[in-house]
Q: What sequence folds into this?
């Protein structure tokens, strides 16, 4: 949606309102810069100016904006004295709609634009930037499309910015009229300057001579149904740009930062000619699975023209390519064509990544990729840290550098540069690696705690241990004391003449002769109501009397827990962690119609033997006793099963029966009574 309200300003000026709505579009489509325009030898106007308009954008389609226009206000806010960044922030905050107050400096040119079949100085059928405008963009920095995925443009600074704005204003009308006069044959011949760089509609910077910037005439556009990629490539544009080359191919591959490309390059056999040939492809590299062979000539990569360039320069281009995607344009020559200066390379050295162990040794290490543009923006020192010892550390960062933007922090330990480990490197070795690295540099870093933080943590840990020790030494109230593992705890149970409700093992005529251990807790007893005692708890004494099972019969031990106590009973409990147990199997042949003679009480561990009838099976008589826990029956686990299921398993079994039995085996913790 575009609204227009115009009013006459001073001589030769038109001030009007334009509303842009980018609903359904990626951006508003304007590129801005702060500069100044010389109105006369004695006067000048400064402010925010439009330095570029994206084709087919809301700014382009409205027909009321052009390069050189001055923005007076944005959404009612005066921006005549605002900085470029402040205006960018206002546009970001505006969401999908902005209202601009525009000052146009040449009214006659505005009227001419209305009568011309093109608007904003762009042909409606074109999908490329006005080359005169983009030339100034290339010298002044990146353009700005205010939408998703668009970068923020950086305006020209100081005198260069002023000269550029003056040049744009004084030549704008003349250049437009010249283009109008050549309108009839503009689609047929590409007379643009092909030096320098330009940005595609997707925001990627490419060479002007790239196939992505190739201009198609009207008929070619109608035939080309392919959608341009982010670098502007279509096969129609590629074939037109390199129409003298054979078997042109476009190859795409996703790059893996941890995996080399595996590409060997070579130059032309004729030293007077420049070319970039594929000398070999490592089958284990990133390009091992794509359609590229030795002898292919690489003419472009990601909009960077390699045709007629030295293969050594091409290597630097590959290293400096941004992003994870690699798009190459190649020409496949016939086998008998002699061009490459070397024979195809068939064997590549085995790749060994020596940095893999770093992440095993330092799980918190991270990988950071930084583009080196003359410098990385970091300083390093050789030092020592309490947490990791000696090594190379980041000592300083250049403000606004690529390293700072990538997340490198002062104090980080440098563990590796690309695939070279720096763990045992000295200062000279580490700085040498950083100086030699080119393009995108991959560093493995470890963020460490400061010395103050480490000291504070140690002090806090020591304090916590002391407090825990004091808390342990502090006597607990037996009625509420918590039972802690591997420690004798005195507890008090309220029984009120009610049964305690437990099954225990232990006695001099018992298989358990070193202590009295609980093996079952009945849900209706007082022990269950108290909720502190558990199966396998070792009871060392009761009401202050030690339970020395080596001098007590099994019956006597059982009677201690079946006696009715008046109000309360005190117990000294030891909970072993891990539990002190032994496991064994009992196998027998069960006869049809003859019961096993076991009375069982299921619990969360299995089935505890509450009683057994002697004389049924010798194997049971000699090996099992009251208090043993059957955890498996014929291979089936009994853990947590209800009584009905357990009864059915035991009742229905015939023939060979196998039982896994768990029995307490406590450490002796009570002394024998003195005679």
A:
């Amino acid at each position: 949606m575009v609204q227009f309200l115009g009013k006459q300003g001073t001589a030769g000026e038109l001030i009007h309102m334009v509303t842009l709505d980018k609903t359904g579009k990626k951006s508003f489509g304007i590129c801005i810069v702060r500069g100044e325009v010389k109105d006369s030898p004695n006067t000048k106007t400064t402010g925010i100016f439009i330095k570029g308009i994206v084709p087919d954008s809301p700014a382009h389609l409205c027909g009321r904006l052009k390069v050189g226009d001055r923005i007076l206000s944005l959404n009612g806010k005066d921006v005549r004295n605002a900085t470029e960044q402040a205006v960018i922030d206002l546009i970001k905050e505006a969401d999908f709609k902005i209202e601009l107050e525009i000052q146009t400096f040449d009214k006659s040119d505005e009227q001419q634009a209305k009568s011309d079949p093109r608007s904003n100085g762009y042909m409606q059928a074109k999908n490329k930037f006005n080359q005169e405008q983009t030339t100034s963009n290339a010298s002044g920095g990146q353009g700005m499309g205010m939408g998703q995925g668009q970068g923020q443009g950086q305006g020209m600074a100081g005198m260069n910015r002023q000269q550029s704005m003056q040049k744009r204003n004084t030549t704008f009308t003349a250049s437009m009229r010249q283009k109008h006069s050549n309108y009839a044959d503009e689609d047929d011949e590409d007379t643009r300057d092909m030096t320098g760089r330009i940005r595609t509609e997707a925001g990627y910077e490419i060479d002007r001579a790239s196939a992505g910037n190739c201009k198609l005439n009207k008929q070619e556009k109608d035939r080309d149904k392919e959608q341009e990629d982010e670098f502007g490539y279509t096969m129609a544009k590629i074939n037109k740009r390199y129409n003298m080359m054979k078997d042109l191919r476009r190859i795409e591959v996703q790059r893996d930062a941890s995996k080399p490309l595996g590409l060997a390059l070579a130059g032309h056999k004729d030293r007077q000619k420049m070319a970039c040939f594929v000398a070999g492809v490592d089958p284990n590299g990133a390009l091992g699975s794509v359609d590229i062979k030795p002898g292919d000539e690489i003419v472009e990569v990601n909009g960077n023209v390699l045709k007629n360039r030295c293969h050594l320069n091409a290597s630097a281009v590959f290293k400096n390519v941004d992003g994870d995607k690699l798009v190459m344009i190649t020409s496949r020559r016939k086998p008998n064509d002699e061009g490459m200066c070397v024979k195809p390379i068939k064997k590549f050295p085995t790749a060994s990544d020596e940095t893999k162990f770093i992440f095993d040794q330092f799980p918190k290490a991270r990988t950071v990729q930084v583009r080196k543009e003359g410098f990385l923006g970091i300083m390093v020192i050789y030092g020592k840290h309490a947490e990791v010892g000696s090594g190379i550390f980041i000592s300083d960062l250049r403000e606004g550098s690529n390293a700072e933007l990538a997340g490198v922090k002062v104090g980080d330990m440098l563990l590796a540069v690309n695939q070279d480990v720096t763990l045992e490197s000295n200062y000279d070795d580490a700085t040498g690696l950083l100086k030699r690295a080119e393009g995108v540099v991959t560093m493995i870093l470890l963020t460490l705690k400061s010395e103050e933080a480490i000291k504070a943590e140690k002090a806090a840990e020591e304090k916590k241990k002391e407090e825990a020790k004091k808390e342990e030494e502090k006597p607990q109230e037996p009625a509420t004391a918590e039972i802690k593992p591997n420690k004798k705890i005195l507890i008090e149970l309220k029984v009120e003449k009610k049964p305690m409700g437990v099954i225990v093992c232990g006695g001099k005529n018992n298989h358990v002769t070193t202590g009295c251990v609980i093996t079952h807790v009945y849900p209706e007893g007082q022990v269950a109501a108290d909720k502190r005692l558990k199966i396998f708890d070792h009871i060392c004494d009761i009401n202050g009397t030690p339970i020395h099972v080596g001098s007590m019969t099994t019956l006597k031990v059982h009677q201690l827990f079946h006696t009715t106590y008046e109000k309360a009973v005190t117990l000294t409990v030891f909970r072993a962690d891990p539990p002190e147990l032994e496991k064994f199997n009992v196998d027998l042949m069960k006869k049809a119609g003859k019961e096993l003679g076991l009375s069982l009480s299921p619990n969360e561990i299995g089935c505890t033997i509450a009683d057994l009838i002697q004389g049924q099976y010798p194997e049971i008589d000699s090996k099992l006793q009251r208090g043993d826990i059957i955890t498996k029956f014929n291979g089936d686990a009994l853990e947590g099963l209800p009584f009905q299921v357990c009864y059915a398993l035991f009742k229905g079994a015939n023939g060979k029966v196998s039982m896994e039995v768990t029995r307490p085996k406590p450490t002796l913790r009570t002394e024998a009574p003195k005679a």
About this structure: The longest strand covers residues 44-53. Confidence is low (pLDDT under 50) at residues 1-11, 107-188.
